[in-house]
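Chain A, query sequence.
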Amino acid sequence: MAAGLLIALAGLGERVRVEKPWLVAYDAEGHPLWELLATEVEGTTTGWTATEVTVRIFGADGEVAIEAHVAELETDAKGSRWNSTAPVEGEGASFRFCAEGVRWEDEKLRIEGLKFESGELALTAQVATWSRDGRWHLMGAVANYGEWELEFSQGVYQQDKEVLEITKGLVARGWGWEVRAEGAEIDISAKRVVLQGVEVVEA
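Chain A, predicted structure.
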């Protein structure tokens, strides 16, 4: 079932319920943005609610980049913006995550209360955004990697390269030392940490 049919039904001014729907959204060039599978979708004139939902989000290469599961989603009448009303769990090729909530708008995910794992990397972020090029922009984050704990205000995780770049406000602690640095790069597959502009003090 296409999203357009559901939108047309919801526009009739009556309450509409569709069971076991499959909805797909496309960009202006006809490339898939996301597909949604739900146990039930219930629509009104102002939007619709989907329950027991699996969402597959496509990257810029047309492949599924993220698969997420949530008990309930709400959307606007056009289906162009949606947000979770319950905690979310998801995964990709080399990572898994959970979040307090997500919102899809302008071909991006905004994620609140993120907990993220990739290999030996585990991090939390107050707020994150995911774009279709596979970049996770992290704000207010704390990460653990090997013996290091890293606290930083801004960073970017590139899911295709499995690399975390810390770009602002880094404090790293490990091996009995505290390191203040201008930035860092953690290459998960290479198991390598590189710090830039380092000031070291004893912890």
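The two ends are 59 Å apart (CA to CA). Confidence is low (pLDDT under 50) at residues 4-16.
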